[in-house]
Amino acid sequence: MSNYDKIHRCRALITSAELQLQEARDQIDGLSPDGAELPAVITPTRFEDAYRGLARHLGGGHDYYDQWTEPSQASHRGYARAVLESAGFQVQERQP
Fold first, then answer.
1. What is the pLDDT of residues 8-63, one digit of tens each?
2. Residue 40 in contact with residue 90, Cβ under 8 Å?
3. Number of C-alpha atoms within 13 angstroms, CB side, residue 56?
4. What is the pLDDT of residues 52-89, one digit of tens each?
5. DSSP symbols for 17-79
6. Which domain of life is it from (predicted)?
7. Is 55 exposed, middle or buried (0-12, 13-18, 19+ CB in 10 A)?
8. If I label 2, which of 9, 20, 37, 89 is the partner at 20 to 30 A Cα–Cα?
């Protein structure tokens, strides 16, 4: 692998890490919009707020959450739940 290829690969990894960090920040802002310490138990309302924040981030500032398909919403919900639970939070979701 040439030095150019190595540099290009490093830049791609850094960009990916920056995007993941921004996504995490957006989710935290949705969980705790007032900047207070995050609760141990994340209520259904805060959980939905986190998704709306993520949807706005992905939509360039527009709230596209309601336009996501049901499977897409479920996929994002499952991913965020797994991340939050692995970090030690207890997540409560709305029951259908």
1. 777 777 777 777 777 777 766 666 666 677 677 878 777 777 667 666 666 666 66
2. yes
3. 12
4. 766 666 666 666 666 777 887 777 777 777 777 877 78
5. HHHHHHHHHHHHHHH-TT-PPPPSEE-HHHHHHHHHHHHHHHTTTS--GGGS-HHHHHHHHHH
6. Bacteria
7. buried
8. 20
